[in-house]
Write a structure and sequence with these properties.
single chain, 98 residues, three-stranded parallel β-sheet, two-stranded antiparallel sheet
Length: 98
């Protein structure tokens, strides 16, 4: 039988990043991993008065691993060129891809 206190102290910490629109997916991942990992969603610990990349760099030092959820939340447009018509497609937020 597992000693729950010992198991809790030895969990690896995981920080989950997502777009605001994908927070439900982040919460689902947190729920599925919570038995084995100490998971935190970015909105619970994001640093104020810093850029996204500054927060990522600072927070990543505090966690054992990070999960980035790249869901298609933003509509992107490729302008028409020569004979190619304008193209519209969905893509992940640019702050997840760097």
């Amino acid at each position: 039988m597992k000693n729950s206190y010992f198991a809790m102290k030895n969990k690896h910490s995981v920080l989950i990043y997502s777009s605001s629109r994908s927070l439900d997916i982040a919460r689902d991942i947190q729920k599925h991993l919570e038995e084995d990992f100490d998971c935190t969603i970015w909105e619970d610990c994001f640093l104020y008065n810093t850029t996204f990349i500054e927060s990522v760099r600072a927070l990543n030092k505090l966690y054992d691993a990070c999960i980035f959820i790249g869901s298609c939340d933003v509509q992107s447009v490729i302008k028409a060129q020569n004979t190619h018509p304008e193209q519209i497609y969905w893509a992940p937020c640019d702050n997840i891809i760097f």
